[in-house]
Design brief:
The chain is α/β, with parallel strands linked by helices. The protein has one domain: 3-Layer(aba) Sandwich (Rossmann fold). Strands 2-3-4-1-5-7-6 form a seven-stranded mixed sheet, sandwiched between helices. Helix 1 crosses helix 5 and helix 2 runs parallel beside helix 3. The longest helix is centred in the C-terminal third of the chain and has 24 residues. It is globular. InterPro entries: Pept_tRNA_hydro, Pept_tRNA_hydro_CS, Pept_tRNA_hydro_sf. It is found in: Cytoplasm. Monomer. This is Peptidyl-tRNA hydrolase.
């Protein structure tokens, strides 16, 4: 498996004003993965910043698979173009595309992994599905919870994490990065067993 190339994408919006938003948690996870792999992002013609690395460690101790880490430079709802372009450029099959994104339907602090299924109103995922022509790519769903009271969903995801959440945020980012690495090194089922049955 270590010879199979993966495209690992973190979703978010470009620009410093969005950097701390809940909607940008996918890009925060990618920054952590790049930090772990000791690589830095550089601009790519596919309207994204990318870094090439090996992620994780395979059972037995060999280095994990080769990956292209990517953060689209477009706005969230037009993430599909850069993802499809990168998949084509690096010749990565959609089944080897892993997208890390914020998920409203999961409590803050929890992480879930799946292949395919609906987009749950997530415009970034919807655009990627359309551009790739399939829903069958891997998602690492990073829980940001539901908006309080009657707050609009769009307003909620475009706000920064609360001070209380920010204290817990490093643990969430660590878990999401661990989940992404585990999918690549040990497979989706093992990652689901670990992260879906967390105490």
């Amino acid at each position: 498996m270590s010879d199979d190339l993966w495209l690992v994408v973190g979703l978010g919006n470009p620009g410093p004003q969005y950097a701390g938003n809940r909607h940008n948690v996918g890009q925060m996870v990618l920054d952590l993965l790049a930090e772990r792999a000791r690589v830095t992002f550089s601009a790519h013609r596919s309207r994204a910043v990318v870094a090439q690395a090996r992620l994780g460690v395979l059972p037995g101790g060999a280095p994990g698979p080769r990956v292209i880490l990517a953060k689209p430079s477009t706005y969230m709802n037009t993430s599909g173009g850069p993802v499809a372009s990168l998949a084509q450029y690096f010749q990565v099959d959609p089944a080897h595309v892993l997208v890390v994104h914020d998920e409203l339907d999961i409590p803050f602090g929890d992480v879930r992994c799946k292949v395919g299924g609906g987009e749950g109103g997530h415009n970034g995922l919807r655009d990627i599905t359309k551009a790739l022509g399939t829903k069958d790519y891997v998602r690492v769903r990073t829980g940001v919870g539901r908006p309080p009271g009657r707050m609009d969903t769009a307003d909620f995801v475009l706000k920064d994490f609360t001070p209380t959440e920010r204290k817990e945020l490093p643990f969430l980012l660590d878990d999401a990065a661990d989940a992404a690495e585990m999918v690549l090194t040990e497979g989706l089922v093992k990652a689901q067993l670990k992260f879906h049955t967390k105490d």
